């Protein structure tokens, strides 16, 4: 198994190129932006994305690029080192990278900030866990609500690699996030989400679950932000490590992330 730090030379190359491209961008208000992060544990919807080891400290490198058009249309890419595909599905190939590609449209609807789009989660070398969702979001002040609906054949391998074909399609995810500056340079952040799996998946033994995140972000200046949050989910006994069945991928963990916006 490849350690997470050395999992993807392709990802590192992509991020280096992104940084090089930015160095030539003089306009601070450019519609093209980049981000690069180092995190102590990459969790997605409350679940560990490195399942090769059950300890809480599992550093991951991630980053991406976004382009926002003046008319509200946007395109983006985000990438991260991961290690869970082979552990979760014995018939899946091993992927060490998650590549997200998305596009959407942001607009105003009265006092609401609306966002609609499509996001594809791609796993080079393990296409059986690829997943595509459509989403709609609405923001009002410090609150943002978002619903994502799976339109691909499977949901991260469920329905394509596990269970009857197509059972993952139709899975929904609803989340509400709150972000509010509580003192200069410090923003309190909290979110809660609900994964609603297809009923046939529930019958096969995987229950719906709730994930959560509570923490804060501190603006260090020069584009650097330090984030700290307790992240986890319920139904711990139903989502466990294959390498350590005594521990859960949903276990609450303090996640610390250093991000550089470029």
Secondary structure elements and pairings:
Layout lengths: L8 H15 L8 E8 L3 E2 L2 E2 L11 E9 L4 E9 L3 H4 L8 E13 L2 E11 L8 E10 L2 E8 L21 E12 L2 E11 L2 H5 L5 E13 L2 E10 L19 E9 L1
Antiparallel strand pairs: 1-4, 1-14, 2-3, 4-5, 5-6, 6-7, 7-8, 8-9, 9-10, 10-11, 11-12, 12-13, 13-14
Question: How would you portray this structure in words?
Answer:
The chain has helices at about 10-25, 85-90, 200-205; strands spanning about 30-40, 45, 45-50, 60-70, 75-80, 95-110, 110-120, 130-140, 145-150, 170-185, 185-195, 210-220, 225-235, 255-260. It is mainly beta. It has a twelve-stranded antiparallel barrel.
Could you provide a short overview of the structure?
The protein has 262 residues and is mostly beta strands.
List keywords for this structure.
262 residues, mainly beta, twelve-stranded antiparallel barrel, two-stranded antiparallel sheet, 3 helices, 14 strands, disordered N terminus
Percent helix, as a range, is: under 10%
Radius of gyration: 18 Å
Proportion of residues in extended strands: over 45%
From the N-terminal CA to the C-terminal CA, the straight-line distance is 32 Å
Order of strands, widest sheet? 1-4-5-6-7-8-9-10-11-12-13-14
Strand-pairing-aware structural class: mainly beta
Order of helices and strands: HEEEEEHEEEEEEHEEE
> Helix segment count?
3
What is the residue-mean pLDDT, rounded to a whole number?
89
Which word captures the global form? globular
């Amino acid at each position: 198994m490849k350690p997470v730090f050395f999992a993807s030379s392709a990802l590192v190359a992509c991020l280096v190129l992104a940084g090089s491209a930015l160095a030539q961008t003089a306009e601070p208000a450019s519609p093209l932006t980049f981000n690069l992060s180092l995190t102590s544990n990459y969790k997605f919807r409350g679940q560990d994305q490195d399942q090769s080891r059950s300890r809480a400290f599992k550093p991951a490198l991630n980053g991406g690029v976004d382009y926002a058009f003046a008319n509200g249309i946007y395109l983006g890419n985000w990438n991260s080192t991961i290690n869970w595909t082979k552990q979760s599905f014995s018939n899946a190939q091993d992927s060490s990278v998650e590549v997200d590609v998305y596009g959407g449209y942001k607009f105003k609807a009265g006092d609401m900030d609306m966002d609609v789009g499509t996001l594809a989660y791609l796993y080079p070398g393990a296409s059986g866990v690829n997943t595509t969702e459509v989403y709609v979001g609405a923001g009002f002040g410090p609150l943002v609500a978002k619903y994502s609906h799976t339109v691909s054949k499977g949901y991260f391998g469920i329905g394509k690699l596990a269970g009857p074909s197509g059972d993952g399609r139709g899975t929904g995810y609803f989340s509400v996030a709150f972000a509010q500056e509580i003192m200069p340079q410090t923003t309190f952040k909290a979110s809660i989400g609900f994964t609603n799996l297809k009923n046939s998946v529930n019958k096969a033994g995987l229950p719906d679950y709730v994930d959560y995140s509570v923490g804060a972000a501190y603006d260090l200046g020069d584009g650097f932000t330090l984030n700290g949050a307790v992240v986890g989910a319920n139904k711990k006994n139903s989502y466990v490590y294959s390498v350590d069945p005594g521990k859960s991928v949903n276990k609450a963990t303090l996640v610390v992330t250093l991000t550089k916006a470029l």
